[in-house]
Specification:
The complex is a heterodimer of chains A (about 120) and B (about 260).
Chain A: E1 2-7, E2 12-20, H1 25-37, E3 42-46, E4 50-53, H2 55-70, E5 80-84, H3 88-97, E6 105-106, H4 109-114
Parallel strand pairs in A: 2-3, 2-4, 3-5, 5-6
Antiparallel strand pairs in A: 1-2
Chain B: E1 8-15, H1 21-34, H2 39-60, E2 68-76, E3 79-86, H3 113-121, E4 124-130, E5 133-141, H4 145-148, E6 150-159, H5 164-176, E7 181-192, H6 194-208, E8 213-217, H7 221-230, E9 237-239, H8 242-251
Parallel strand pairs in B: 6-7, 7-8, 8-9
Antiparallel strand pairs in B: 1-2, 2-3, 3-5, 4-5
The chains are: A alpha/beta (about 120), B alpha/beta (about 260).
Chain lengths: ~120, ~260
């Protein structure tokens, strides 16, 4: 798995590629925790290069979004973890596990970043 | 039905640590490859085995340090069986509560998804604890990929008591060989009697029993009238053209 991060004005764009399995899920969790520690709670995960996701990866996503949403500027504005560019296989795992309705999912990273 | 008739098997032992996951996937890949599964089915098996293996690595051996995980697969009669064997603590995945995948985000629990996925992706998951340790068996039925693709037939002539069997013979043979998605172009069928209708119904029943799809295409007006009069226009999927049928298939996520 490879993680690259790009800091934008209001949002951090994190590109995750390869296998998000039990072995690699902790690396993504650490990266997100790192961003939270810097006070960065608006995150877009770009999954365009993601080949594989297993349940430990899904767990990281749900926990990350819960924490991000606890950070609020106003009642209407705050942190979130949003997703972009899900390949078909990843989309299928999301559908099977009910994750499709748990996250805001965008067609591409630009759209996801723009949604904040 | 002779699918995956070649009997084959293999087994290997891995260190029960997360570093082994990629190697286990590759090992299972040799099995799905031999089954000639579609890429999507093969990936379902990989994910299910990955979840099962992860679960064993994280729970069976706890803090005791290292253990081993033996994985074996066998193919017989159109069924792929994968068995995972470990010497850790007894752990029956059936006892893990099933997550409510419809609960709203705020109430959503993060755990239990691995076992849920494993059950969802395989046809059968069984666990038993023996003197020799934990044994988890995963099974998946498969159709060879060549049979999964859409098959397109142009039917010709009269579908009556005399002509039906011959006219539909290639279709019946394809279904018996495991074909699951079938388009029947009917524009050259000049006549349809009740025995023709009965044969079509039998083909439909066989395909439906395997979650397949049968589409009838371009019926001549007087043939379509037979379907309408008998109420069978609501039983069969009728399409005006091959293009219309294929785009309906694509809309359901089938490979066209």
């Amino acid at each position: 798995m490879e993680i690259t991060q790009k800091r934008l004005n209001r949002v951090d764009l994190v590109h995750v590629s390869g296998r998000l399995d039990a072995m690699h899920a902790p690396a993504l969790r650490n990266k997100i925790e790192e961003l939270f520690a810097e006070g960065r709670y608006r995150i877009v995960l770009d999954f365009s290069g993601l080949e594989y996701v297993a349940s430990p990866g899904l767990r990281v996503l749900i926990e990350a979004r819960k924490k991000a949403r606890d950070w609020k500027i106003t009642d209407f504005e705050g942190g979130d973890v949003r997703l972009a560019s899900l390949p078909n296989r990843i989309r299928e795992v999301f559908d099977l596990t009910g994750f499709t309705s748990l996250f805001d999912i965008y067609a591409d990273a630009t759209e996801a970043v723009g949604s904040f | 039905m002779q699918l995956g008739s070649a009997m084959s098997h293999a087994s290997t032992t891995f260190p029960a640590s997360l570093e082994s996951l990629v190697a286990i996937s590759a090992f299972v890949n040799t099995a799905t490859h031999q089954c000639k599964m579609s890429e999507r089915e093969a990936w379902h098996v990989q994910l299910a085995v990955d979840e099962a293996a992860t679960n064993i690595m994280q729970h069976a051996y706890g803090d005791t340090g290292s253990g081993t995980l033996a994985v074996s697969w066998s193919i017989d009669g159109g069924v792929l069986t994968v068995v995972l064997h470990d010497h850790g603590q007894p752990f029956d995945p059936a006892l893990v509560p099933v997550p409510d995948i419809h609960s709203p985000f705020e109430d959503r629990q993060a755990g239990g998804l691995g076992i849920y996925l494993m059950n969802k992706l395989m046809d059968e998951v069984t666990y038993r604890f023996t003197d020799a340790g934990n044994e988890l068996t995963l099974r998946k039925r498969f159709a060879e990929a060549t049979a999964v693709r859409v098959q397109h037939f142009v039917i010709e002539g009269r579908l009556d008591a005399r002509g039906t069997a011959v006219a539909l013979e290639p279709v019946t043979a394809a279904v018996a060989a495991g074909a699951r998605t079938i388009l029947l172009d009917m524009h050259k069928v000049s006549f349809l009697s009740s025995s023709g209708l009965r044969s079509l119904l039998m083909i439909r029943r066989e395909i439906n029993a395997h979650q397949g799809i049968l589409m009838l295409i371009a019926l001549l007006p007087h043939v379509e009238e037979v379907f309408t009069m008998t109420g069978f226009s609501q039983v069969f999927e009728l399409y005006p053209s091959v293009e219309a049928a294929r785009s309906a298939l694509a809309g359901r996520g089938e490979t066209v």
